[in-house]
Structure formats: structure tokens, C-alpha cells
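WARN no homologs supplied; continuing
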Amino acid sequence: MDRFVICTSLLFAACASSGDGGHHRPGPGAAERQFERIKSLEGTWTGQAAHEGGESFPVEVRYRVTAAGSAVEETLFPGTEHEMITLYHLDGDRLMLTHYCAAGNQPTMVAEKAPADSKTIRFRFLRATNMRSSADAHMHQAEMTLEGERLRSQWTMFQDGKPTEEARFELTRKSGPGLQALDSDHVRALWEAFAAAQ
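OK structure emitted
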């Protein structure tokens, strides 16, 4: 048998086995539980968003599980000039996110540990790219609360080491795996309503 085929077969066999000699594997840790909750968001969510002290406006957010289940892509304002992406993934025993912001920087945050029954995941700033210093305006912390088919999230911007602005989202699931997503005309209507509110 070809040596490459043999090596590949052994590699797949090693990945499929637990590697623990048949011993009981521990249950998922806090980060894994949090990540599974993020993965459960897959689909399209719509609702209202508002900046601190401002009027609310319609918003759409999409979640997609990718990279063989190892990452979740969140798309805010999909298909518009203000589209932003956030990627969630595990790093060992930590749940992390990197937010690709319309401001042009990319803050990375780490989720705080929380009880197994907690419905809220809180993220705190770790580092960022494309910033001259941590004093630059950037998203510094985020919070997500999932209750059934409703999702609340809150993003806080910092500048010069202090919170300066807060964005809040109140969302309801509109589609998920196997359900029909919103069409492009609906997406465009949401964006036009958002632009009119500015």
C-alpha cells in the first residue's frame, strides 16, 4: 500500500480516537459550553439597535458556523457599506472573539468564565491590531444574553482608557439551519431604514 495512504489512515485513526486509553473523557469546560451557545445562534436575526442616547433603528445580524465547526462568523449589517464581521473561536480553555470593525481596527476579546447555567457571555479586551495605541477609539468589551429565540447584545467603545459609547441590540431569530433566510430586498429595506435614522 502506498506510504502516503498508510500515513493518512493512521492520522485519521488518531484523530478519531480519544487518546485517553479508554478512560472516561471529562465533560465540556466553561469555554466549550459558551462556544456551543454561540454556535446555536446560527441563522438570521433581526430587531432593533440603538446607540447610547439615540433612537433605535432596524438591524439584521447573521451567524454562520464555519471551519468544520471550529469558528462562528457573525455579520452585522450584511451587504451594506457598514458591514462588520466578528469571528468567535476557542483558544484552549478560552473563548475569544476578533471584531473586524468599520473603524478599521480589529480588537480581540476574551470571554469571562461564567456558571454553566449562565445565559450571558461577557467579553473583555485583550489586544488589537491597526491601532497606534490602546488610547485609540475601539470596541473594548461586549456582552451577549441568549434567552430562547431572543438575543440581547451590548458593545462598548473605549477611547483614552474610558468608555465613550455603547451600542445595544435586541434581536429575534428569523431563520436558522433549514429555514428560509431573509431575501436581499428585505436586507436592503432594513439598511435604508437605518440610514434614514442617522
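The mean pLDDT is 83.
OK
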